[in-house]
Structures are given as structure tokens and as C-alpha cells.
Amino acid sequence: MAIVKIEKLCKSYFLGTYTLPVLKDMDLTFEEGEYAAIMGPSGSGKSTLLNVLGCLDRPTSGSYFLGDRDVSNLSDDELSFIRGQRIGFIFQSYNLIPQLNIIENIAVPMFYQGKSEDFCHQRALELAEMVGLTDRLTHRPYELSGGQQQRVAIARSLANDPLIILADEPTGNLDSESGRDILKILNSLCEQGKTLLVVTHDAGVGKRAERIIHLLDGYIERIENNGHKE
């Protein structure tokens, strides 16, 4: 089943009288449980594509179906609701709230969706255990290593059982050993049926994906099929 489908998708930015096209006539489909990577040089459109897929920005033209819904022209409030319900985010810089402990950081997306405190706490405990952080539950982000902070971010991304998880350079700030640990967790998510889309500069990260979408100057230059999850 297709989780994401974009057709003739374009994104331009309007700077006074100048139009800057960033994404150009993109057609892509991501299936349920797929592990895909987006790669390309700086300025190729990777971050813009991630922002559109994450409902942080709208396409200028074309369509974007997330699940069975066309989200191309939704209002800001509707996009915010979709982000909270259907999309999980993992960032290079973790984006944790420093004043909150591990459990509280993981629970934040659920609170925004109006879930009860008991539900949020229990679900956060389960997710913390899944990423191997049961001995760090009351710690705050500054008390954790980079790899541990990224584990928290992964757990948080799963809080509302999203349709798709978007990861932006998830190992970019980590040493090699911590990076490998994070990639193993991401692999396990796909094995559980999650759909994962990773933006990366690291060819080693890309090789773990089933498909690599190579971007160049706002176009899809080519799609490389690895056909496996390592």
C-alpha cells in the first residue's frame, strides 16, 4: 500500500520579483514498510522535499497524498493536525526540550494530541524501553550522550504511531559507534512495518535503505534500488 505519493510536485520560493524553483516535477511513491534514503549535494532540494513531505511547507503545484488524503492545499491548522497524527520526525540536532526529562520529552507529542497523562506516561515508558533507555528515565538531555539523545528522539517520533517517519541526517552529530547503534534501531523499525525516509550525505547510511533517491538541482536524477535492509 502506498503511504506517500507525490505527482508533478514543484516548490518555488518567491523573492520579490524573482522566482527560485527548488523542486521540479517530482513523481515519487513510498510503500508501507519501505526504507528509503534521499541523497544529493547541497542545494539539490533534499531539505525542501523533507519539509514538504513533513507538512512543514506546501508545494507550489502538484499533489501530495499522505495515506489516502491529499494534503497539498490544507490550512495551517490542518497541516499541524496531520503532522501530529501521521508524521514522526527525527532531527540531526535531536530537538529535545532541555527542561524535560526523558519520559516527558517522549510524551510531548501525545500531550499535544490530548491523550491522558496516564496513557502518555505508559506509552512513553514502553518506547523508552524499546530504544534501551530504561535506566535513564529521569535524566534530562544534557545528562545524556548524543547517541542517547537520538534514541529519545526516535522514541518521541513513534509516540503517536505515525504513518511515516522522516529522519534528517540522524547520525550526523554522532560518533561511528553511536551512529551504527542508531541505524540498527532504524532498521528494526522498518522490520516492524514502519515507513522510514532518511535524508543523508552519508553513503553508508544510504546503502542500508531499499531505495536511494538521488536529487540534483531540484530534479530526481536517478533512483537506485538496493532491494534489501541491512
List its salient traits:
single chain, 230 residues, alpha/beta, Rossmann fold, 6-stranded mixed sheet, 4-stranded antiparallel sheet, 10 strands, globular
Describe the structure.
The protein is 33% helix and 30% strand. It is α/β, with parallel strands linked by helices and 230 residues long. It has a single domain, classed as Rossmann fold, CATH 3.40.50. The strands form two sheets. The chain has a six-stranded mixed sheet with strand order 6-7-8-3-9-10, with helices on both faces. A hairpin with a 2-residue loop joins β4 and β5 (69-70). α3 (102-112) packs across α4, α4 packs across α5 (146-157) and α5 (146-157) runs parallel beside α6. The mean pLDDT is 92.
Condensed summary:
The protein is α/β, with parallel strands linked by helices. 33% of the residues lie in helices and 30% in strands.
Helix percentage range: 25-40%
Can you write the helix and strand succession as a string?
Answer: EEEHEEHEHHHEHEHEE
Q: Give, in spatial order, the strands making up the sheet with the most strands.
A: 6-7-8-3-9-10
Number of strands: 10
Structural class: alpha/beta
What percentage of amino acids are in beta strands?
25-35%
* Contiguous helical run count: 7
CATH class: Alpha Beta
Can you give the mean pLDDT? Answer: 92
- The N- and C-terminal alpha carbons lie at a distance of 22 Å
Principal-axis shape equals globular
What is the CA-atom radius of gyration, in angstroms?
A: 18 Å
In the predicted model, the low-confidence regions spanning at least 5 consecutive residues are: none
From the coordinates shown, what is the CATH architecture? Answer: 3-Layer(aba) Sandwich
Query: What's the quaternary structure here?
Result: single chain
- Say which CATH homologous superfamily is assigned: P-loop containing nucleotide triphosphate hydrolases
- Looking at CATH, which topology would you report? Rossmann fold
